[in-house]
């Protein structure tokens, strides 16, 4: 049996200010660096066979802290980059409420970009499922480390645990949280 260790990046300035970041390249805060170091400590005894990382800097930096004892060479994969949020990037959650309700933004049943140039959720889901299917076939019985984003983590949750009947994807993980999926 293989295992995926999915880690959301550490806290960023955008997270602190409750701004939507999407594909905006944000940096880890000091707290985010500490979170990543703590997660690295939590995972230091796991023998990883391979690692995949989002191309965004916050994920790469988080991986760097986790990877110190492992010395893995990461595979940077664009399929696990955060969902592009178009006109929502850089806006706050408060502003978001007036633009599009959270339940709409993460509702798999809705096929819309809400006029905001957001990547449709079905498009994000397709690329993430393609990624998951490929790595689980290629790396059976392996321990896989993935460092990416909260939004992408929602799709991992849905892939392994199903999309809820209301169509709204599961809540995202906390910064630097580890979720384990068996395959």
How do the strands and helices of this protein lay out in sequence?
Layout: E1 3-8, H1 13-16, H2 30-43, E2 50-53, H3 57-67, E3 75-76, H4 93-99, H5 102-105, H6 121-138, E4 143-148, H7 150-161, E5 178-182
Parallel strand pairs: 1-4, 2-3, 2-4
Antiparallel strand pairs: 1-5
Helix pairs in contact: 2-3, 6-7
What's a concise summary of this model?
This protein has 183 residues and is an alpha/beta fold. Helix content is 38%, strand content 13%.
Could you characterize what this model shows?
There is one protein chain. Helix 3 links the parallel strand 2 (50-53) and strand 3 (75-76). It is built from seven helices and five strands, in the order E-H-H-E-H-E-H-H-H-E-H-E. A five-stranded mixed beta sheet has the order 3-2-4-1-5. The mean pLDDT is 94. The radius of gyration is 16 Å and the shape is globular. It has helices spanning 13-16, 30-43, 57-67, 93-99, 102-105, 121-138, 150-161; strands at 3-8, 50-53, 75-76, 143-148, 178-182. 38% of the residues lie in helices and 13% in strands. The protein is an alpha/beta fold.
